[in-house]
Design goal:
Elements: H1 3-13, H2 18-27, H3 34-41, H4 54-69, H5 88-99, H6 103-112, H7 119-125, H8 139-154
Helix pairs in contact: 1-8, 2-4, 4-5, 6-8
Length: about 160
């Protein structure tokens, strides 16, 4: 699943206007013009298509968290963690935080897309990589979660 596809699907599922998307990017410290955003949202075969990097996708997801939940205050003495390469697990985790979803809401959203996942399978997706019960999130699961979001918020 491409980052451009993820942005398009999230924009549609959450019914986000272009101007709001520009603001979401700005909240994370990334300036993007409306024409550049339009090029990111185009399909691969369309003229003007620009490939969306992991970094740009992460800026959007971080901005979405701030947009939905507010800016996080860092406690004195705490150090910001270094970001890791963006994976499907990371995308799912950021969406869970942004949308304030609990386990049951995640499961019901996947169920709306016709995908049945157990609680233990879901919790394995949110474990730290390298942990014994960690499970990698595949494109199909992420695609179904975004499809479930669309059903949940648009229908």
């Amino acid at each position: 699943m491409t980052n451009n596809d993820i942005l398009r699907r999230l924009r549609y599922a959450l019914d986000i206007k272009d101007s709001t998307m520009v603001e979401i990017f700005k909240l994370s410290g990334y300036e993007i013009s409306r024409p550049n955003l339009t090029n990111l949202l185009k399909k691969e075969e369309e003229k003007g298509y620009v490939d969306c990097s992991d970094e740009v996708t992460e800026f959007f997801l971080d901005g979405l968290i701030i947009h939905k939940r507010g800016k996080r205050e860092v406690a004195p003495g705490h150090v910001e963690t270094q970001s890791t390469p963006l994976t499907n697990n990371g995308i799912l985790k950021k969406l869970r935080i942004a949308l304030k979803f609990r386990e049951d809401e995640m499961l019901s959203t996947l169920k709306l897309a016709g995908m049945s996942v157990s609680k233990s399978e879901l919790s394995a997706l949110f474990r730290k990589e390298g942990q014994r019960h960690y499970k990698e999130c595949g494109d199909q699961l992420l695609r179904n979660f975004l499809k479930g979001l669309t059903t949940r918020f648009r229908d």
